[in-house]
Amino acid sequence: MTASGDRLDVLHVDMDCFFAAVEVLDDPSLERRPVIVGGTGPRAVVASCSYEARATGVRSAMPMGEARRRCPSAVVLPGRHDRYGEVSRGLHEVFLEFTPVIEPISLDEAFLDVSGSHRLFGPSEEIARRVRSRVREVLRLECSVGVGRSKLIAKLASREAKPRPSAGGPEPGPGIVVVLPEEELAFLHPRPVGDLWGVGPKTGERLLRYGVRTVGEMAALDKAALERLLGRALGGQLHDLSWGRDERPVQAATVPKSIGHEETFPSDRHDQAELLPEVVRLADSVGSRLRATGLTGRTVNLKLRFGDFSTITRAHSLPGPLFSSLEIARLAAELLSGVDVGPGVRLLGVSVSSLEPLATAGGRQLSLLDLDRAEEAPRRADGPLRAEVEAAVDAIRARYGAHAVGPATVVEAGRGLRVKELGDQQWG
Amino acid sequence: MRFRADRDTLLETLVTASRASASRSALSGAAPGLQITLRSNVLEAVGSDPDLVIEARCEVAGEQDGTVLVPTRLVTDIVRSFESGAVSVAGGEEEARFSAGRAEFVVRVAAGAEITRLSSPETSGIDLPAVTFADGLRQVVRAALADDSRAPQLTAVQMQATEKGLRLVATDSYRLAFRDFEGMSALEEGSQVLVPAKALGEVQRLVSQAKDDQDEMIGFRHSDLDAVFDLDGVRITTRLVRGQFPDVDRLVPSSYAYRLRVSREDFASALRRVRLLVRDSKDITTPVRLSFREGGVELQVLTPESGRAVEALEGEFSGEDIMIAFNPGYLLDGVEALRSDLLVIEVNDPGKPALLRGEGEDEYRYLLMPVKVS
Predict the structure, then answer these.
(1) Which of B305, B369, B371 lies closest to A368 in CB terms?
(2) Cβ partners under 8 Å of residue B281, min gap 6
(3) Concatenated DSSP letters of B59-127
(4) How does DSSP classify residue B264?
(5) Mutate to test the interface with A, among B174, B333, B365, B374 (most CBs of A within 10 A)
(6) Which CATH superfamily is domain B253-368 in?
(7) Number of neighbours of residue A400 by Cβ within 10 angstroms
(8) Which residues lie across from A214 on neighbouring strands?
(9) What is the mean pLDDT of residues A306-332?
(10) What pLDDT score was predicted for residue A423?
(11) Cβ B304–A100 below 8 Å, yes or no?
(12) Residue A336: its H or E element
């Protein structure tokens, strides 16, 4: 399904100040105050900030130190990725009401191809209005929508739809900007070249030397000249974009190939018994992440790097979908038991591959004959209760953080619960 | 061997026998063909694979008795290609000739070869009413396991003598079908046999193809090893499956928390519609989610790459709202097995088996395990 021709079939939906808005949503006392979400370390940067913070000049990706200087009154929050992920899944659900062809760009931004949705929901502008009102209704958050013939135009249009920060509070934007095919060049050409995909600081500098600052100036260049200047691929691509030609289809989300964690040990480990708790620890985190991303897998992979940097991998595939941390741990431990760790293990990795979204993975067909097993041994680790335990663990972690709860195997004397976490240093 | 036969009659006989002719003969070592034997005016075609033998008979105009072993696929294709009317067949030591009108085929035969036959049980048997029994088979055979890679006993249907009569049970471990025939005694009291579902499927097919003759009977007898079904003009002999059939009575819940009553036809139509979005692959099937709620049920199939389908049905339901997901194929199998106009679905929770039955159709029950979804 491709949006093509002159039809305005591409929507770009972008949440307004997403992380900061979620923080305000969860803590209404933050309303109308400058809120900055970002890292706390020495090299931390701003991940997201409210319009009140923006009014003082704070921007995304700005070093945190500078942001604090510009806006000393800001409430600075460390960010809760799990929570943002949860809201993002809700957002995806809203999108699904309108079209199955959704290309997520990040947690708070996605392209929608609505070429098949007009009969149900009307023209694209009407769909954009409905998306905004459903996002407001379901998530109680605001978003801006750009509508155009192509991803390029839709994305630039959503930016125009945004509210503008000002000293007296944000001025509401139009919320929806539709760029008609005949308006495209007038819309595109006055913009700085940096607005186009593929134009980074380096390319921008090179273009500047030729006196090219705007997309219009770029469009005025001969295609061959642009190709000589920037190389054939990039030059050709930018030439097309500068004339509003963007054939890239909206592509429904692609599932990652695998989800995994690795651990490098301070000193090599020579003993299965020393490695086993690490397997459980890594599997626990892999399982949590798998469930948090709404995926299931069918293959468990174990990776071992020895002291001499030689690396081996072992894999085991199951017929059905896999989402339990315990099952991952059990299979990884089984793989580990078949490996001679005598030479000393420097790095251990556990990952799950053959991934598929849980919603489509078909879930797991339960077996009548397992009922016996469940009734006889409700406390068995792989019994039906286990899934409930893991769901509870996930819920606790979503609320209190990854370290709030974990498998006993992972508790170390004197160090407490050490849960392997993704993005401990998320924003520096 | 030489005879003339009606093309349609001959074809039907050959096709029936060929259902047992091993396609994987190279593996099993069974003869790759049909044995055709003429005794005066009766032609018998026998197909055989290691566990199943089908002998089919028809009347022909015999000229010279004899027997010949012909390649199954080729000969059925040849006879099928003929126009309706008379077919002449002559079989010799090395070749068999099939002709009709001006067309003539000469086919090499396997000289001196014999096909395997199963020992026919010597026990005396009993007669089962064909139409009733076949209807029960239609309802039960579907729940048996299709291939025997995991558990051979689940590829069988358990025929069991109960206090009230005969019971057929089949399960592939995901669903479980029961059919009771009150007052029908096919086995010694308290005994049970495991009959391959494949053989019973053939019995069912042959009865349902025949005229709907309510008086027709099926002769049934068995030994410890084999069972025989005698139908009009066809004998099916099958090896019994050894092994322990699971104790399924214990799996049936004694009570259910919620009950839905809905038109069976409407439910089946809706399910067939929403199933259009189901993606079926080797390991994984998209589930259909049933949301039970006051006043009815909603069926939903969701496949992000293709879209979603929703259909709400009015029905009688009381209790808390509850969502339970099922494999749509298994669910439809159960709904289609029933005869009653009113479908009853009884459930406990999303991890426990659900029961499908027909209102006023107490002799059949279909128990189905849900699919666990997030």
Answers:
(1) B369
(2) none
(3) E-EEEE-EEEEEEHHHHHHHHHHSPSSEEEEEE-SSEEEEEETTEEEEEE--TT-----PPPP-S--EE
(4) H
(5) B374
(6) DNA Polymerase III, subunit A, domain 2 (3.10.150.10)
(7) 10
(8) A192
(9) 84
(10) 42
(11) yes
(12) helix A325-337
What distance in Å separates residue B284's CA from the closest CA in chain A? 6
Secondary structure (DSSP) of A223-288 = HHHHHHHH-HHHHHHHHHHHTT---PPP-PPPPPSEEEEEEEEEEEE--HHHHHHHHHHHHHHHHH
B2-108 under CATH 2.20.140.10, yes or no: no
Neighbours of A112 (CB within 10 A): 28
Alpha-helix runs per DSSP H in chain B: 7-18, 25-28, 72-81, 130-141, 197-209, 264-274, 328-337
Answer yes or no: are the C-beta atoms of B110 and B33 closer than 8 Å.
Answer: yes
Q: Which of B206, B211, B218 is nearest to B138 (CA)?
A: B206
Judge whether B194 and B241 are in contact, CB under 8 Å: yes
**Residue among A96, A298, A320 minimizing CB distance to B304:** A96
Q: If you measure CA to CA, which chain B residue comes closest to A383?
A: B351
Q: Is the pLDDT of residue A62 over 80?
A: yes
Q: Name the residue in chain A with its Cα closest to that of B252.
A: A368
pLDDT tens digits along A190-216: 999 999 888 888 888 888 888 889 999
* Closest CA–CA distance from residue B232 to any residue of chain A (Å): 38
In angstroms, the CA A136 to CA A421 distance is 32
ipTM of the complex: 0.80
The answer on pLDDT for B39 being more than 70 is: yes
**Residue B313: its pLDDT value, please?**
95
pLDDT tens digits along B195-253: 999 999 999 999 988 766 778 899 999 988 899 999 989 999 999 998 889 888 888 99
Coil, strand or helix at A202? helix
Three-state DSSP class for residue B342: strand
CA distance B115 to A316: 44
Q: Is the pLDDT of residue A379 over 50?
A: no
Show me where the domains of chain B are located.
2-108, 126-249, 253-368
pLDDT tens per residue, range B122-175: 777 888 999 999 999 999 999 998 866 557 888 999 999 988 899 999 998 899
CA distance B206 to A417: 67
| Helices A81-96 & A384-400 angle (0-180, nearest 10) | 110
Q: Which of A253, A365, A372 faces B174 most closely, judged by CB atoms? A: A365
Contacts of B302 in chain A (CB under 8 A): 96, 359-360
Q: B22, B224, B7: which is closest to B99 by C-alpha?
A: B7
Residues A188, A244: Cα–Cα separation, whole Å: 7
A28 CB-near residues (< 8 Å, 6+ apart): none
The CATH architecture assigned to B126-249 reads Roll (3.10)
Active site residues of A: 109
